[in-house]
């Protein structure tokens, strides 16, 4: 990891630790105030706890033009981004996505879509729904490794992260505490529950929290849709296409709508927020990820609406290309932040539990 980023974040954390004005703002400050000396791993842990709500910046009396020149959201955001890149496996791919995220995402989506379009020439003579354009066995052969291999890469990244921050022994209670916090988006509620200041300086807003929740729950519902379809196919011999009131559709359609609304909202807020309070060099890569996830959900909804029409033959390759791109880029895009943040929150719950025993 870059030493200069760690040193600057450490300088600011030490000043914040002496001030303590923002003690109740989010989970960063109780963790910060617990320490007296900040090792590199401590700074990395704090950075991945930070949700970049920016409330501490607008409340701070030591921001520029004060000589302390504090900008803790930016300092932690840059360490956080650097940690994802430093622990990514294979190394180097995350840095490439930061520099050229939009071009990489568009290129991969269109390239994979072309391959899937050409693969339709191998489609079976008989098939219903999407299987009239592409065989089930081909989809399984492509997407199973595309799903499992990025998960393995993320697991290796998280192992490196866990070792660097000091590790520890988690319990189910620690994981459950982190899961509840993530589900509520507790750290985007602000110190008094009024929301955060992400998009409009000192005005509190719940918009970012709600858009994050729509994205999270929409994504989980879409995953549940795919999982339920897999169970129906292999467990009960019920093959697609499925009706509107089947589990895959009851999860997938509202999940896709939520995912569209959430990602569109996050992209809009990102254009309104001050980039200098985040990691400016990663802005393009972050926006590329949000727009890719938006396109995955939108193309899925359009594909469902076009089922049985000529347009389905063109929309299917585009949707599959977007999904495949999303899977393959997961360890190297902003999607990695969810895994790192959950790990950081679980470790924070572990440390709080251990502190209560003492």
Describe the structure.
Helix 6 packs parallel to helix 11 (283-305) and helix 9 (207-236) packs antiparallel against helix 10. The protein has helices at residues 3-19, 28-33, 40-49, 55-59, 72-87, 93-119, 136-164, 172-184, 207-236, 247-272, 283-305, 312-329, 336-357. The chain is elongated, with a radius of gyration of 22 Å. The protein is mainly alpha-helical and 358 residues long.
Note the topology:
Blueprint: H1 3-19, H2 28-33, H3 40-49, H4 55-59, H5 72-87, H6 93-119, H7 136-164, H8 172-184, H9 207-236, H10 247-272, H11 283-305, H12 312-329, H13 336-357
Care to give the gist of this entry?
The protein has helices at residues 3-19, 28-33, 40-49, 55-59, 72-87, 93-119, 136-164, 172-184, 207-236, 247-272, 283-305, 312-329, 336-357.
Q: Treating each run of at least 4 consecutive H or I residues as one helix, how many helices?
A: 13
User: Could you say which structural class the secondary elements and strand pairing correspond to?
Assistant: mainly alpha
Radius of gyration over C-alpha positions, nearest whole angstrom: 22 Å
- Summarize the helix and strand pattern as letters: HHHHHHHHHHHHH
Find the count of extended strands (DSSP E, 2+ residues): 0
> Uncertain spans, ≥5 residues at pLDDT below 50?
none
Q: How many structural domains are formed by the residues?
A: 1
Keywords: Membrane, Transmembrane, Transmembrane helix
InterPro entries: Citrate_utilization_prot_B, NarG-like_sf
Protein name: Tricarballylate utilization 4Fe-4S protein TcuB
Write out key terms for the chains shown.
single chain; 358 residues; mainly alpha; 0% strand; elongated
